[in-house]
Amino acid sequence: MDSNMSTYSTLLTLEPLGIAPLHIFPVFMFGTLTYCAILFFNITLLLTIALNQKLHKSMHILLLNMPINDIIGASALFPQIMTSMLSQNTSITYSACYVQAFLIHLYGTGSFLILTAMAYDRYIAICCPLKYHTLMSTNNLLKIIITVWTIDFTVIGLLLALSYRQEICSTRIVDPFCNNPSLMKLICGDIRLNNYYGLSLTVFIHGLSLFMVLFTYIQILITCVSKRQSDAKSKAIQTCGTHLVVYLCFEFISLFVIISHRFTNVSQYIRGAIATSLMIFPPFLNPLIYGLKTKEIRQNGTVLFCKKISQS
Question: Which pTM was predicted?
Fold first, then answer.
């Protein structure tokens, strides 16, 4: 293929989902309802925290970033994939593909950084309770949030900028949506710099995040057990369990998706299905897990919902 064919409006072809024609409409309806549910749950969590003064605490303000990030991830995937499914047209422009890839990677990296910040908040609250209000003051909390989003936008912006070349030798994306590994496979010539940076970024984000999360929760468990209270173990499990399970599931699944692109014998359908699930299940389950499991959010959310119904 002519390497000079690449322009910002060049049409790329995404990998089809492989859904039988008979099942397209039911799957489309299910996908649309799922996306609407994701938006509803996450917007509800956002409004519940934003509109209730009682919830303007460090833990809840950090949590506020999660539904924002989940909406970004779901919105990067669902509109494009639902439209492609219904129209049976898997084409996407070169520029639109990069926008989608940017948002998807922004969501993935943001998830790790936000979960890491939440783990740090719980560590300070349980292991250093007397210093909590000082260490997690409004000023420091704002610095943490700004740092999280600055790192997210910077590292992902540079990652995609390295792949944004004028010349490509193929128009076939090997996944049902755009991402950096698939875009790199289109590029003509040497992509060693892209590989080195991508590998370094993976090690940095995943390694640092995993170390901090495991360290903070080990310290939390030690602190809870050392108090010798009758409810120490249950408190530790309640504090660490859900967060740790959510984090580790996201960690290992995302690592599988990243590594699988480097092996040709991995089924592209399995890789595509697993990668897609990362943008479906966490955005759907996170507001339910963190919203319903947190007593204050659950109570204030119920009050807010009932108030809206009575006003209507």
Answer: 0.88
